[in-house]
Amino acid sequence: GSYMPTPLVYRGHLYVLQNQGILDCYELETGRELYRQRLPHGGRGFSGSPVAADGVLYLPGEDGDVFAVKAGPGFELLSRNGLGEVLMSTPALSEGMMFLRAHHHVSAVGRGEAGPETGALETLWFPIVRSVRSTASAASSRAADRENRLREAV
To answer: Which pLDDT band holds residue 113 (cuts at 50, 70, 90)?
Structure first.
Protein backbone atom coordinates (compact mmCIF):
# COMPACT_ATOMS: atom_id res chain seq x y z
CA GLY A 1 0.00 0.00 0.00
CA SER A 2 0.81 3.67 0.07
CA TYR A 3 2.99 5.02 2.87
CA MET A 4 3.49 8.71 1.96
CA PRO A 5 1.22 9.62 -0.98
CA THR A 6 -2.47 10.02 -0.14
CA PRO A 7 -4.82 7.86 -2.25
CA LEU A 8 -6.99 9.73 -4.75
CA VAL A 9 -10.67 9.21 -5.57
CA TYR A 10 -11.48 10.54 -9.04
CA ARG A 11 -14.31 9.83 -11.47
CA GLY A 12 -15.42 6.56 -9.89
CA HIS A 13 -11.95 5.12 -9.31
CA LEU A 14 -9.56 4.88 -6.38
CA TYR A 15 -5.91 5.46 -7.27
CA VAL A 16 -3.18 4.38 -4.85
CA LEU A 17 0.39 5.43 -5.58
CA GLN A 18 2.98 3.47 -3.65
CA ASN A 19 6.30 5.01 -2.61
CA GLN A 20 8.09 2.65 -5.03
CA GLY A 21 6.20 4.08 -8.03
CA ILE A 22 3.52 1.42 -8.42
CA LEU A 23 0.11 2.85 -9.31
CA ASP A 24 -2.97 0.78 -8.45
CA CYS A 25 -6.43 1.58 -9.77
CA TYR A 26 -9.59 0.18 -8.17
CA GLU A 27 -13.21 0.41 -9.13
CA LEU A 28 -14.68 2.55 -6.36
CA GLU A 29 -18.06 0.79 -6.11
CA THR A 30 -16.80 -2.79 -5.99
CA GLY A 31 -13.16 -2.48 -4.84
CA ARG A 32 -12.08 -4.62 -7.79
CA GLU A 33 -8.49 -3.96 -8.89
CA LEU A 34 -8.42 -2.73 -12.49
CA TYR A 35 -4.66 -2.44 -12.92
CA ARG A 36 -1.31 -2.29 -11.16
CA GLN A 37 1.45 -0.58 -13.09
CA ARG A 38 5.00 0.50 -12.25
CA LEU A 39 5.92 4.00 -13.42
CA PRO A 40 9.24 4.34 -15.32
CA HIS A 41 10.97 6.54 -12.73
CA GLY A 42 14.63 6.94 -11.81
CA GLY A 43 14.39 5.08 -8.53
CA ARG A 44 14.06 7.71 -5.81
CA GLY A 45 10.37 7.05 -5.19
CA PHE A 46 7.22 9.07 -4.60
CA SER A 47 6.40 11.21 -1.57
CA GLY A 48 3.94 13.74 -3.02
CA SER A 49 0.32 12.75 -3.54
CA PRO A 50 -1.32 12.44 -6.94
CA VAL A 51 -3.75 15.12 -8.15
CA ALA A 52 -6.18 15.05 -11.07
CA ALA A 53 -7.73 17.50 -13.52
CA ASP A 54 -9.42 17.25 -16.91
CA GLY A 55 -9.24 13.44 -16.99
CA VAL A 56 -5.52 13.29 -16.24
CA LEU A 57 -3.72 12.12 -13.09
CA TYR A 58 -0.50 13.95 -12.21
CA LEU A 59 1.97 11.92 -10.14
CA PRO A 60 4.96 13.83 -8.72
CA GLY A 61 8.15 11.78 -8.39
CA GLU A 62 11.10 12.56 -6.12
CA ASP A 63 13.41 12.43 -9.17
CA GLY A 64 11.76 15.65 -10.39
CA ASP A 65 9.40 14.13 -12.95
CA VAL A 66 5.64 14.64 -13.01
CA PHE A 67 3.98 11.68 -14.71
CA ALA A 68 0.68 12.29 -16.49
CA VAL A 69 -1.57 9.21 -16.62
CA LYS A 70 -4.96 9.08 -18.29
CA ALA A 71 -7.70 8.63 -15.69
CA GLY A 72 -9.85 5.53 -16.20
CA PRO A 73 -9.93 1.76 -15.96
CA GLY A 74 -6.86 1.15 -18.16
CA PHE A 75 -3.32 2.39 -17.61
CA GLU A 76 -2.05 4.86 -20.21
CA LEU A 77 1.04 6.98 -19.55
CA LEU A 78 0.50 10.22 -21.44
CA SER A 79 3.75 12.01 -20.66
CA ARG A 80 6.68 12.46 -18.31
CA ASN A 81 7.39 16.10 -17.49
CA GLY A 82 10.79 16.84 -15.96
CA LEU A 83 11.44 19.70 -13.54
CA GLY A 84 15.12 18.94 -13.12
CA GLU A 85 15.21 18.98 -9.32
CA VAL A 86 13.95 17.00 -6.33
CA LEU A 87 10.18 17.09 -5.95
CA MET A 88 8.70 15.79 -2.70
CA SER A 89 5.53 17.83 -2.26
CA THR A 90 1.99 17.48 -3.60
CA PRO A 91 1.13 19.79 -6.51
CA ALA A 92 -1.57 22.43 -5.97
CA LEU A 93 -4.16 23.01 -8.70
CA SER A 94 -5.96 26.30 -9.27
CA GLU A 95 -7.71 27.83 -12.28
CA GLY A 96 -5.96 25.74 -14.93
CA MET A 97 -2.55 26.06 -13.31
CA MET A 98 -0.43 23.58 -11.38
CA PHE A 99 1.94 24.88 -8.73
CA LEU A 100 4.92 22.69 -7.83
CA ARG A 101 7.28 23.28 -4.93
CA ALA A 102 10.55 21.57 -5.71
CA HIS A 103 13.83 21.58 -3.79
CA HIS A 104 15.00 25.05 -4.90
CA HIS A 105 12.13 26.56 -6.88
CA VAL A 106 8.39 26.98 -7.07
CA SER A 107 7.02 26.53 -10.59
CA ALA A 108 3.70 27.39 -12.13
CA VAL A 109 2.82 25.25 -15.12
CA GLY A 110 -0.16 24.94 -17.39
CA ARG A 111 -1.25 22.83 -20.29
CA GLY A 112 0.58 23.46 -23.51
CA GLU A 113 -1.09 24.02 -26.86
CA ALA A 114 -1.76 20.28 -27.19
CA GLY A 115 -4.38 20.29 -24.42
CA PRO A 116 -5.11 17.94 -21.52
CA GLU A 117 -5.37 14.75 -23.55
CA THR A 118 -1.57 14.64 -23.96
CA GLY A 119 -0.71 15.37 -20.33
CA ALA A 120 2.11 17.64 -21.51
CA LEU A 121 2.85 20.59 -19.27
CA GLU A 122 4.28 23.93 -20.31
CA THR A 123 6.27 25.97 -17.79
CA LEU A 124 4.71 29.40 -17.69
CA TRP A 125 7.27 30.95 -15.39
CA PHE A 126 10.18 29.47 -13.54
CA PRO A 127 11.26 30.21 -10.89
CA ILE A 128 8.69 32.20 -8.92
CA VAL A 129 10.81 31.99 -5.78
CA ARG A 130 14.49 31.06 -5.99
CA SER A 131 14.64 29.60 -2.50
CA VAL A 132 13.48 30.30 1.00
CA ARG A 133 16.97 31.55 1.91
CA SER A 134 17.23 33.97 -1.03
CA THR A 135 13.70 35.27 -0.38
CA ALA A 136 14.52 35.86 3.29
CA SER A 137 17.80 37.55 2.34
CA ALA A 138 16.01 39.84 -0.10
CA ALA A 139 13.40 40.75 2.52
CA SER A 140 16.03 41.58 5.14
CA SER A 141 17.97 43.59 2.54
CA ARG A 142 14.83 45.63 1.72
CA ALA A 143 14.23 46.19 5.45
CA ALA A 144 17.84 47.40 5.88
CA ASP A 145 17.42 49.78 2.91
CA ARG A 146 14.24 51.24 4.44
CA GLU A 147 15.99 51.68 7.79
CA ASN A 148 18.94 53.47 6.13
CA ARG A 149 16.56 55.80 4.22
CA LEU A 150 14.75 56.64 7.48
CA ARG A 151 18.08 57.46 9.20
CA GLU A 152 19.10 59.72 6.31
CA ALA A 153 15.75 61.52 6.43
CA VAL A 154 16.13 62.35 10.15
So the answer is: low
